[in-house]
Structure formats: structure tokens, C-alpha cells
Ankyrin repeat protein
Amino acid sequence: MAESIQDGPDDDVVYITSPPAEGIDPDASREFLDLFRTWNGRDIPLASYYIDNLSHDIEFQNLMRWVTDPDTGDTAMHVAAAVGNMKAFDATAQSFGREWDRNSWFKTCFRAVFFLRNKAGDTIFHVAARTGRLDVINAAWHHFWQFETDVDLLWVPDYMVATVLLARKNAVGHTAADEATISGYADVAEWLNQGLDRVTLGGKRATKSRMARMEELVDGRYDIDEHHLTWDQIPRVGLYYPPKYRS
């Protein structure tokens, strides 16, 4: 059974917060991932609802994190990045509804999928860099440079998030820039290296101890290892809507 929690200590609403122990059906997983190869992002959440053996009890943003290719470990974002389907990046955002980016819970769930790694240790930045897809990298990068309108206890400075995204290494010790260089995409490697140089102030923020601490803080915010979030990790949703929208 999947782990479930209440929305809060005084609420009766229960949400599934971790993948089912028996896993997700392999055929359903492949069918879900196939949607991200060609479909428009706006249509993916609805289309996924009609996949046989894919539980309707799991919210779409959790499917984005928990459904992986049985062979490669690729997530939906890895698949979209590999084929350059940037419209698929909008799939999760659309599922959250209007003004989702003002909500700390939604923003965390959305950003988390960009950090997930497949069995080779690749993030979507490694995948895009290896195939020379600078357009994909730019599209993903856009989602990490929005001003935080609500500062909370779990807030992590954007430069830390950006640093971890660009400096993270895969299973063979390569950054996304390394993969671009090896694959012969000098323009992509230059973009990634310049980006990392800027967010680390020319390497001044990139000492071994500082990098380890930044990874710890960022992974803690986006719960990379456990792949689930609990009600007490994220501020209540109601606090982030104007009074006229509150019940």
C-alpha cells in the first residue's frame, strides 16, 4: 500500500504521499511516459486519466515524480527533454490551476521533477545537454528564476537552486556541461559553464564544503531522496491566496 497522510492534524482529508509499495504497473508507466513524447502539455493530465491500471487516487504532480521507465528510470521530464517536447513542461503547471506559482506547495512539487535522476544519475539537464537541446535547457531554466513572493522557513535562495542544477554530477561524474562537451555541443557547454560561473561568483561559492551544504539544503527542500512531502513540510495552501478566495 502507498503511504498516506492527513492534510493536517485536525483534517480528515487523506493524500497519498509515496509510491505504492507494489510499484506502478510497467505497461501503465510506459503509456504515461509516451504522452510526454508528442502530446501538448495541456492535454496530458486528462489523457493520463484514461490509462488502464494507473491509479486515479494519485495526484498528477505525484505521477510526474513516481512514474519511471522500468528499464532506464527516466521520468516524464527526462522523456520530454530527450525529444525536445518543451510543451510537456507545462503539463504539471496546468494541472495546478491558476496562479499556481504563488503557492509554495505547488511550486515545490513542480520544481522537484527537474531534480529527479534516472538510473544513470542523469537529470533532465544532462539529457538535454547530451542531445544539444539548448532550447530545452532554457525552457527548464526559466522555472527557477521567479521571485519568491512569500518567504517561508523552507525558502532556499535561487542561486543555490541554480548552482545545484548546473553542478550536479551523474553516475560517471559528469556535469551537464561535461556531457555537452563530450557530445560535441560547444555552444551548450559554454552556456552551462557561464551560468554556473555567474551563480557561483566565479567559483567563490563553489568550495567543496559550500557545495555539499547547498546540495543538502536544496535536496531537503525538494525532498529528492524520499520522493514525497508531508503536510508539515510546506506552509498551508490557504495562506497564499488573497482573502476573497478563502472559504
